[in-house]
Specification:
- With about 260 residues, the protein is of the alpha/beta class.
- The chain has a single domain, classed as Rossmann fold, CATH 3.40.50.720.
- It is built from 9 helices and 7 strands, in the order E-H-E-H-E-H-E-H-E-H-E-H-H-H-E-H.
- The chain has a 7-stranded parallel beta sheet with strand order 3-2-1-4-5-6-7, with helices on both faces.
- Helix 1 packs across helix 8, helix 3 packs parallel to helix 4 and helix 4 runs parallel beside helix 5.
- The model has no long low-confidence stretch (mean pLDDT about 95).
- Belongs to the short-chain dehydrogenases/reductases (SDR) family.
- Its main location: secreted.
Length: about 260
């Protein structure tokens, strides 16, 4: 049985990735910081024991060793690593202090770098690492700041791993979600400006769903994705690759405060 590690697995995209991979027959170690939420993840396993969890702060110095040890002790192997853990609500460059910069880089670049480094030593040919990045790592994004910097660095790390370890049969790809309906973005959907930017500029007229991202990650872990390496798959309904505006946006009369009349 193949074994996957999924970080940030207590909710949202990580929860979806963990349960989807488990449903496809893998054993999954899900990590997060909230033991209560992780208990819910274990309950969602398709069969008892298929999903194990570890409550850990990924920025702790010993986090990679603890995660790797937990997977090996339970199942004796590691086939896939899904670096998903992240945080949101960034600020633009001029509003970002050093503490915020360090926090974003620590969780979304340093932590996956260190975990991948420790996991690689235990991967065999046919294994893969999937890094969950963002459309803000593909195009410029308003208010991206430290978030964009971290996710952009994770894209570069993805390409390096793909090149360096591809000859060993270890692949690495990135999945870049657009705005996806998760608890992390739920509050932002109350912002009319945020909704317009993401809904009225998306040709496929809905926001992303957790299943959209989880199924893409699962494909990259499958035999069907076994020749895909060093790529970023953008899952955003066309938001980042088009200049689309909805009929509503095109036909509305705009007033100085940005609200349609």
């Amino acid at each position: 049985m193949q074994v996957a590690i999924v970080t940030g697995a207590s909710s949202g995209i990580g929860f979806g990735c963990a349960t989807t991979l488990a449903a496809q027959g893998m054993a999954v170690l899900g990590t997060g910081r909230d033991p209560g939420r992780l208990a819910e993840l274990e309950k969602a396993a398709p069969e008892p024991g298929r999903i194990a969890t570890l409550a850990v702060d990924l920025t702790d110095d010993d986090a990679p060793q603890r995660i790797v040890a937990a997977a090996l002790e339970r199942w004796g192997r590691i086939d896939f690593l899904v670096n998903n853990a992240g945080i949101g609500s960034p600020k633009p460059l001029h509003e970002t202090d050093d503490e915020t910069l360090d926090r974003f880089l620590g969780i979304m670049l340093r932590a996956p770098f260190r975990l991948a480094r420790d996991v690689l030593a235990h991967m065999q040919p046919g294994s893969a690492i999937i890094n969950v990045t963002s459309t803000f790592a593909v195009v410029g994004g308003l208010r991206g700041g430290a978030y964009s910097a971290a996710k952009g660095g994770l894209t570069a790390l993805t390409n390096h791993i793909a090149c360096q370890y591809g000859a060993q049969g270890i692949r690495c790809n990135a999945v870049a979600p657009g705005v996806t309906l998760t608890p992390m973005v739920a509050s932002r959907l109350e912002d009319e400006r945020f909704r317009k930017i993401n809904i009225e500029m998306t040709p496929h007229q809905r926001l992303g769903r957790v299943e959209d991202i989880a199924s893409t990650v699962a494909f990259l872990c499958s035999e069907g994705g076994s020749f895909i390496n060093g790529q970023t798959i953008v899952v955003d309904g066309g938001w980042s690759s088009t200049k689309y505006l909805s009929d509503f946006a095109l036909t509305s009369t705009w007033v100085p405060d940005g609200s349609p009349s």
